[in-house]
Design brief:
By secondary structure, this protein is of the alpha/beta class. It folds into 2 domains: 121 residues, Nucleotidyltransferase, domain 5 (2-Layer Sandwich), CATH 3.30.420; 156 residues, ATPase, nucleotide binding domain (Nucleotidyltransferase, domain 5, 2-Layer Sandwich), CATH 3.30.420. The protein is 37% helix and 22% strand. It contains 9 helices and 14 strands. Helix 6 crosses helix 7. The two termini are 13 Å apart. The relative contact order is 0.15. Its EC number is 2.7.1.59. It catalyses: N-acetyl-D-glucosamine + ATP = N-acetyl-D-glucosamine 6-phosphate + ADP + H(+). GO terms for molecular function: ATP binding; metal ion binding; N-acetylglucosamine kinase activity.
């Protein structure tokens, strides 16, 4: 038995995993952001709740492990940022520890148990508050040792004009330190930013989408520009990776008409042609980070035996 954790900025969720088909969620506790000792005790308390001693733990975290230094980059939880977190937790808990990026865990969950089943190469895309992604090939996560593969949300690649007719798009500053990243326009906050730029209107992504679905002119224009901006970098990602399915997670994945528009635009831009949808809604709707971490932990445990 292993225990997987989904570590978010507001909550830590746990789960017991005995096999790929036997993953049971546990409860959630608030995330101690600034106190590492409290962070460790929260994990320890969740482990104790099970009444069993796991053989290892696996963590899904909204951060990236540097494969050279093994240090975690996780700015939204300061007490674990820039730590060799796996080694630190192993010393505290006396258990083997595996850490993976949450988007990678999402991709792993979808490749194994979700929309990516039966596909050799799966690119999991996150369209949530921001943009993320993970790549799975032949059942293996490309980032098993940590790293940045799948991070299609970053890099100065957004078009300077988009939509029909084209409109100028600023190179918005990104939290990663660059300008013009997909992350600045592709998530919910990016959609809101586009609407503000195009129409000088401050609306939530939910309001923009609702107006679009009712045929409102300004919202329709914003979605047209949004799809044009996001489809090209996603199409390039598919061409480079050879992915044959792109499960999408995050809040915007719940808007299936938007995914259909994005799928149509992406399929028109890629080299390989499909007679089926390529960009699809994810199927692991409940805690895919928890599921993905559990799958990675189970694989690591099997290799250790």
């Amino acid at each position: 038995m292993i225990i997987s954790f989904d570590i978010g900025g507001s909550a830590i969720k746990g789960g017991i995993a005995r096999s790929e088909t036997d993953i049971v969620p546990l409860g959630r506790r608030p995330t101690p952001k600034d106190d590492f000792a409290a962070f460790v005790e929260t994990l320890r308390a969740i482990i104790a709740e099970t009444g069993e001693q796991p053989s290892r733990i696996a963590l899904s975290i909204a951060g990236v492990v540097d494969p050279d230094t093994q240090r975690l980059i996780c700015a939204n939880i300061p007490c674990i940022h820039d730590r060799t977190l796996a080694a630190d937790l192993e010393a505290e808990l006396g258990l083997p520890v595996l850490i993976a990026n949450d988007a990678d865990c999402f991709a792993m969950a979808e490749a194994s148990l979700g929309a990516g089943r039966g596909h050799r190469i799966v690119f999991g895309a996150i369209l949530g508050t921001g943009v993320g992604g993970g790549l799975v090939a032949d059942g293996r996560l490309v980032n098993e040792a940590g790293g940045f593969a799948g991070e299609w949300g970053h890099g100065p690649i957004i078009a300077s004009a988009a939509g029909n007719p084209p409109v100028a798009i600023p190179a918005y500053a990104c939290g990663c330190g660059q300008k013009g990243c997909v992350d600045t326009v592709g998530g919910a906050r990016g959609l809101e930013r586009l609407h503000q730029t195009l129409h000088d209107l401050d609306l939530s992504s939910e309001e923009i989408i609702a107006q679009w679905q009712h045929g409102e002119e300004k919202a329709t224009r914003t979605i047209d520009v949004y799809v044009d901006l996001v489809a090209s970098p996603l199409a390039l990602t598919i061409n480079i990776t050879g992915a044959t399915i792109v499960p999408v997670g995050g809040g915007l994945s719940n808007v299936e008409p938007l995914l259909a528009e994005l799928d149509q635009a992406v399929c028109a831009r890629i080299l390989r042609k499909f007679d089926r949808p390529l960009v699809v809604r994810s199927q692991c709707r409940i805690e895919p980070g928890l599921i993905g971490a559990a799958l990675l932990g189970l694989k690591a445990e099997a290799l250790a035996l």
